[in-house]
Structures are given as structure tokens and as C-alpha cells.
Amino acid sequence: MVTSKPQPDSNSKVLVLGAGNFGSCLASHLGDSQHDVFMWAREPDLIKHFNLHHRNPIYLVDHDFPQNIAAVGPEQPDKEFIDKMDVLLFAIPTQFLRANLEQIRPKLDINNLPLLIFVNKGIEIGTHALTLEIIADTCGPDIAKAATFISGPSFAKEIVERQPTSVSVASFTESEAVKAANLFHQPHFRCYTGGDPIGIELSGALKNVYAIASGMSDGLGFLNNTRAMIITRGLAEMTCIGTAYGASPLTFLGLSGVGDLFLTCSSSNSRNYTVGYRLGKGESLETIMKTLGSVAEGVSTTKAVKKVVDDLGVSAPIASSVYDVLYNGKDTKLAVRQLMELPPSRELELPPTAGGPARQLLRKLGLENTDLNTIMHPHL
Ligand SMILES: NC(=O)C1=CN([C@@H]2O[C@H](COP(=O)(O)OP(=O)(O)OC[C@H]3O[C@@H](n4cnc5c(N)ncnc54)[C@H](O)[C@@H]3O)[C@@H](O)[C@H]2O)C=CC1
Ligand SMILES: O=C(CO)COP(=O)(O)O
């Protein structure tokens, strides 16, 4: 059992781990609400520049940050510092999260646990673990149950411009999701809570794979019909994968599902779309990754998704084609042609909802009796 700190009030102490596009964007958002924000960065020059000029020299370079944000690091913060925090917000790419959590765990007081929020959108390669499982492995099931996940259509650049934005906020501990929603909620930033963190996480990770597919199609010169097909068939694939995994199919119709899928499949502001677009234009993955300058979670997640899909025995032809282009050197035009030559099939056939991986994860968390369908939709 953990005991969590109370609802962060108007003057809370927040530590944002990660000073990339999204970490700095959320630091700015919370700084605007008068919280004392600390932003942990690994780059010494970034820290120095940020504290002098209130600008991030690498990410969101044109944005003026509120004065009440201090950059800290690059050593991991010590226990005394973490003890003082009301909120720890992890904006670290998925593939690096485990190592960082291993360092943080000994510094967490489970009798006075800060609100723990995770915003990364990916699946770990090698283990095929969702972030929930990475937290359970490194910090134990009780801390994983208290963790909250934020996902949805939310480009960092647009949040700092205060463009109206909405996200999904989910946790197995509803009171923690409500605390996180209250912390972030602003007139230009709406938060909707839900209780299917597995579905929220899966949808946020999967949409990146289809954003690569959509970018690839645009890069090849295909037009609107084709993009709409990829978005819609992508949603069908995501929902089938999620259902077989054990998440609620309805979660995929929410902000973290179709909302973020639509956003990232239709905008060149998306790094994942951009990877696909450049592949479609004929660049090699190696060149793209060397020059992108920012993380595209979908590239590693595609590898993990391929294994998840194969293990589940679900048909996911678009995700499998993206995998073949990224990892088997398949020509992008050939991938599209082969997808179009598949025989006709039923438009949507959801697999049984018994859901192996989610069941195993729920068991690991001591939540074996939880029904993700009913916690997301209490009246079902
Ligand atoms: N940028 C956006 O609009 C959004 C991003 N996200 C998610 O947030 C997460 C972070 O993305 P961005 O900030 O955009 O990425 P970014 O590429 O802008 O920044 C990456 C950050 O990760 C840090 N990093 C690199 N290696 C690390 C390591 N070994 N340990 C700890 N930190 C390390 C870098 O120093 C940098 O601060 C991703 O999972 C992304 O999918 C979610 C919603 C929106
Ligand atoms: O997830 C995102 C916006 O919701 C950001 O997408 P990219 O990582 O593809 O840029």
C-alpha cells in the first residue's frame, strides 16, 4: 500500500524529468499556473542557458518560459530533493524510462508518495512492456497502481501557444487521475479522466506506427483518399490489437486513440509522420534518424508491436508493412501495392476480449478482478 500526498494546491512543487519538447512544454504549462517547477535535464549547456535566459536552446527554442521554472541536473536529483516534490512528471522517451526509474525508486517514500505522471507514448523493445509494466518492474506494483498516464492529441508546440487542447488522463487509482486532471486543467487545456490506463497507453503507442504509415503514403505522393484509408484502417487495427490485448475497445475511440491518431497521421508537425514522409521520399531510415533531432517513438515501438501482434495472432497488415519497411528494407511502393492487393475482408471483426497480456499485467499489479471495460464505462 502507498500513501499519496494530497491534491497539489496552487503552489505545488513539480519536478519534470526530461527537458525535451514535451517536458519543457508541460513545465511551461504548469509554470503558468504558478507552481514551483523544476525541470531536470541531462544537458549541462541547456541548464545553464535556461536558467540565464528562460529559454530552452534545443527544444521549443522560440518560447519564453515563465520565470518560476528552474532547470536542474544533470545528476539524478537526490532523495532530499525528491521528498520535497508534490509531483514527479516523467517526459522521458520510453526506451530510457526503465534505467531512469531504477535510479529514482530508492528515493521515493511510499508513505508520502508524490503524484506520479507519465506522458511517454511507446512500448519497450526487448521486453514489449508498456510503461505500467516498466513501473511495476522497477518500483513495484503499488507504485504502478498509483501512477497516472496522460495521452491524447497534444503537440508541444501548440500547447505553449495555448491552442485549445484536450487529453485523456488515466490511472488505476481514480483519485490520482483526478489530482492530475485538476493539476493540468486550464481554460485552454481540458482533461478527461478514465480508468483504462492499459488502453490509453496502448493507443498512444500504436498511433505512432500508423503516423509513420500515413507520412509514408503522403511522401509517396498519394492523396486524401489514401490518408483517410490509413487512418480508418489504422484505427480498426489498433482497436483489434487493443481488444486482443485486453484493453477496452471503446478507449480507442477517445482522445488517446482516434484523436491522437488523426492528429499525427495528418500533420507534418508529427515526428513519426515525418519519418514516414521522408521514407516515402526515398531517404534511408539511418539518415532520417541521424538528422531528425528529436525522438520518433514509433520507430522502436513498431518493433515491439510486431512481436505483440504476432504473439496475439491478430491481423495488422499496416503495422506489419511498416515493420517490413523499417526493419526488412522493404520498398515503400511495394509495401503499399501488397497492402492494396490483399483479398477483400470483413471491415471490422474484433477478437475475443479475454486479453492475455492485460490479464497478466493486472495479475502482476494485484488487480486480477479488474474489468477494464467496466472501469472505463461504469454503466456497462
Ligand atoms: N513532443 C510532443 O508533442 C509530445 C511528446 N510526447 C511523448 O513524450 C515523450 C518525450 O518526447 P519529447 O519530449 O517530444 O522528445 P524530445 O526528442 O523532444 O526530447 C527527448 C528528451 O529525452 C531526453 N533523453 C534522451 N536520452 C535520455 C536518457 N537516456 N535518459 C533520460 N532522458 C533522456 C533528452 O535529453 C530530451 O530531454 C515521448 O514519449 C513522446 O512520444 C507526448 C505528447 C506530445
Ligand atoms: O504524440 C504527439 C502529439 O500528440 C506527438 O507526435 P510525434 O511524436 O509524432 O511528434
TrEMBL record:
GO MF entries: glycerol-3-phosphate dehydrogenase (NAD+) activity; NAD binding
SUPFAM superfamilies registered for this protein in UniProt: 6-phosphogluconate dehydrogenase C-terminal domain-like, NAD(P)-binding Rossmann-fold domains
Binding site for substrate: 121, 271-272
Positions annotated as active site in the UniProt record: 207
EC number: 1.1.1.8
Entry's Gene Ontology cellular component terms: cytosol
Entry keyword annotation includes Oxidoreductase: yes
Matching InterPro entries: 6-PGluconate_DH-like_C_sf (IPR008927), 6PGD_dom2 (IPR013328), G3P_DH_NAD-dep (IPR006168), G3P_DH_NAD-dep_C (IPR006109), G3P_DH_NAD-dep_N (IPR011128), NAD(P)-bd_dom_sf (IPR036291)
Family from the record: Belongs to the NAD-dependent glycerol-3-phosphate dehydrogenase family.
Protein name: Glycerol-3-phosphate dehydrogenase [NAD(+)]
